Queue: 2 jobs
Job 1
Amino acid sequence: MSVIYDRVALIGLGLIASSMFWAMKRAGLAGEVTGFARSAETRKIARDIGLCDRVCDSAAEAVEGADLVVLCVPVGAMESVMRDIAPALKPVATLSDVGSVKRAVIEAITPLLPKDVHFVPAHPLAGTEHSGPKSGFAELFENRWTLIVPPEGCDRTAVERLTKLWQGMGALTDEMEAEHHDLVLAVTSHAPHLIAYTMVGVADDLRRVTDTEVIKYSAAGFRDFTRIAASDPTMWRDVFLNNREATLEILGRFTEELFDLQRAIRAGDGDHLHAYFTRTRAIRRGIIEAGQDTDAPDFGRIKHD
Ligand code: NAP
């Protein structure tokens, strides 16, 4: 594949930025890639492991002369980072971000955007429960969707170029409007994370009663919750604070359904439970058929017997 951007700057050097770096380098999509992270510690690790061609000591220095700048910091930090870099952005550069929430990020960035810079927000629907500069890998985005969320009047050439970059990193791409993105993600990611956090919290309370039994006998369902609930606390705090309406809307519906199932259990209504679980099972089949997960038992976990 040929170079799409001669100069790329990654601001924030965690899971997503490091995966982007390795994926871009593997496919030869970028010339020089510069990087910046807030702490000297992360910048040192990045230098030690060869993450970025050049690690800079300020965000403004990193974006100087960049054709593409990608904000890879927690959603709540986007605005302050933007304040630091805005005066240093190259005219006609593309600015993008990978935040898990889109409306709030667009509202924070747009007022600070220089007139001649094209802002093309994006969100790769790929991640792990790990974070930091060492957690990234080139394959993270392969066969996973990246949603491009161009604000109204966005420059089409800039959108298409960024789309090509994501496709070059192995992603499937689609365009979506910001509000719709936030609602879809509230259903598919944000509410499930909150439920996982809650479930693990409840089990932790129980552990006080049963000592280590919850950990010792943790079954597949609970183990999957603990994996999700191990995700970065800062990132997820910012997701909920910035996608408040959509998350609350979905949690409201969730609570209603939960009460409904609770009633069915209390009433011994097995038909209702069976019909409900049959419907949800079909959704799982749909995800596997769409190539977004494996149908191997136990989520394809490698056994270490
Ligand atoms: P991460 O591994 O925790 O890395 C975050 C990076 O941002 C770190 O380099 C951190 O620097 C830097 N940072 C944090 N606060 C900052 C601030 N105030 N100013 C400057 N830099 C700051 O995070 P990530 O998982 O890559 O997530 C980055 C973004 O991608 C988030 O917006 C998240 O919503 C989105 N996203 C995440 C996932 C996922 O599953 N993880 C998936 C899709 C999208 P230090 O290391 O120096 O603290």
Job 2
Amino acid sequence: MKPSIVVYKKQPADLQQRLEQHFAITQFDDITEENRAQVLDALQNAEGLLGSGGRVDKELLDHAPRLRAVSTSSVGYDNFDVAELTRREIPLMHTPTALTDTVADTVMALVLATARRVVNLAERVKAGEWTQNVGPDWFGIDVHHKTMGIVGMGRIGLALAQRAHFGFDMPILYNARSQHTEAEERFGARKCELDELLEKSDFVCVLLPMTQQTFHLIGKEQLAKMKSSAVLVSAGRGPVIDEPALIEALKNGTIYGAGMDVFETEPLPKDSPLLSLPNVVALPHIGSATHQTRYDMAACAVDNLIAALNGDVKQFCVNPDVLKK
Ligand code: 8YV
């Protein structure tokens, strides 16, 4: 008999077929408050769990006594209770390499769109407001040769540094727990304290995952250290930025603008003040959202689940210690 799995994300047709060859599947589109009871029910029998987005916590795991592997179609895993998975010796698999360049492209798009006011000005053109040669009230700020500050130098940080260095001739500062010689040698990046990065950078790109240590790492005090001409770009996880503090800083000119792909609450509530601020470019968490990259992530997650259920994990395990037991 094929092992049972619960899938909570729609799969491309060929990947669905591949899964069906290996497993008996109970399919959901997501794990939500509405369908949670059905998901818990389906988990009674499941040996594998595959998806992304929904919360996988202790309560859910308590309903999955036969679970042997979990695979997320994402690099981030803040939706998972990793300690609880590890305690149960269940490997959690993720897709850290599939989305690197696509997310770095999105970050650069936010840098450019915010600096050059692309969205705001395109809207004015569409509204028929382009009636004469544009003057200073339509001008933006330069990106090339300005200082790029990267907070969190993982794979995406490195890909961003590559773009900033070769594409825009930007000096690069970075803040990270460890030194990244590749970033230093290939892209001339310099490691510094967060305060120095905030004070000296023209673009502060925050690419950190959500952890207890990173929650509200950028708040009022940090924003006050930035140049009033600087742009903050947030593309890791929303709660790393204290959003009310950022809104204040954007309103009172503490910083020039913000480009955001992630938010404290997603989807962004309709009454968020961010929506009415002209110096904000807000995207709907699309860092990795190209057809190709989302397919590659899904394929990687499927491969990861098959490998984990076969006891054949070679890479991409979040809690590899469980494999040694
Ligand atoms: C998507 C992401 O939100 O990979 C991540 O951690 O944040 C994004 O790529 C996610 O993969 C949705 O499937």
